[in-house]
Amino acid sequence: DFWQYVDQMVFWDGPIPTADVIDAGHRNGVPVYGTLFFNWSSSASDREILKKFLTKETVNGKTIFPVADKLIDMVEFYGFDGYFINQETDMFEPWGETMRDFMLYAQRKAKERKGRIRFSWYDAMSNSGDRFHYDGVTTGNDYFVKPYGADQQYAADEFFANFNWSSAKNDNTVRHMKEIGRNPFDAYAGFELQQRSYNTGISYRSLLDGEGKLKLSIGLYTPDSIRGMAVSPEDYHEQERNFWVGFDGDPT
């Protein structure tokens, strides 16, 4: 009911969103992403899965990522917009750089094909490849948001910061995004809403600047948590109104 407040919608159930979700998002001008999820793990088997995903080949003297080509194919065929990458498999050097290069390759290849692929990146992998939550953008994980090359292409369109952000961490994110030439609003402070929905306690002052304005964006995980609170289909719409615009119905 409140698509007007959503910049992007992530389909959390898999890499290809269903047609009804794609259509609903696009009717309301909202890009829809599939999800690429790599387990919270340090096991050899899970590491092998990620390595295969990031496999490089040389064709006619050029480096290609075959899986990235297939991701572009799926975006084009099914008509959605890109992927939220939730990468929580603990790796090591140089896999952070390889992941960045994979995303850069996909971005550029899609543009060569006169199309577009978008990536939203979760804050769980450092530049070196190991699993680490910085709770914002820092020099330790900025490979995924920095512009690179003559075309100033970046790997991720949005950065979803892990949930333990603070005022100081948000200030550092804003400062570092500006230093690398990115809009601070391309960084999203994550809200963990799965258990308590709109009853979740949020340190909202940590999100505001000296004028009381938001200093970065907000990432909601998961706004459909109100489904567990509704007692009827009619009540669902009331709960959703409470979530998005407050109990008095005033969106300000």
Give structural attributes.
single chain, alpha/beta, globular
Give a brief description.
This protein has 252 residues and is of the alpha/beta class.
Largest sheet: 7 strands, parallel
Q: Output the structural class.
A: alpha/beta
Element-by-element helix/strand order: EHEHEEHEHEEEEHEEH
What percentage of amino acids are in beta strands? 15-25%
* Share of helix, binned: 25-40%
Strand order of the main beta sheet, please?
A: 1-2-5-6-9-10-11
| Overall residue-averaged pLDDT value | 97
Specify the number of helices. Answer: 6
Uncertain runs: none
Shape: globular
Spatial gap, N to C terminus: 17 Å
Radius of gyration: 19 Å
* Number of extended strands: 11
Description:
This protein has helices spanning 19-27, 44-53, 66-78, 95-112, 167-179, 233-245; strands spanning 9-10, 32-41, 57-59, 62-64, 82-89, 118-122, 147-148, 153-154, 158-161, 187-192, 217-221. The chain has 252 residues and is α/β, with parallel strands linked by helices. The chain is globular, with a radius of gyration of 19 Å. It starts with 8 loop residues before the first strand and ends in a 7-residue tail after the last helix. The model has no long low-confidence stretch (mean pLDDT 97).
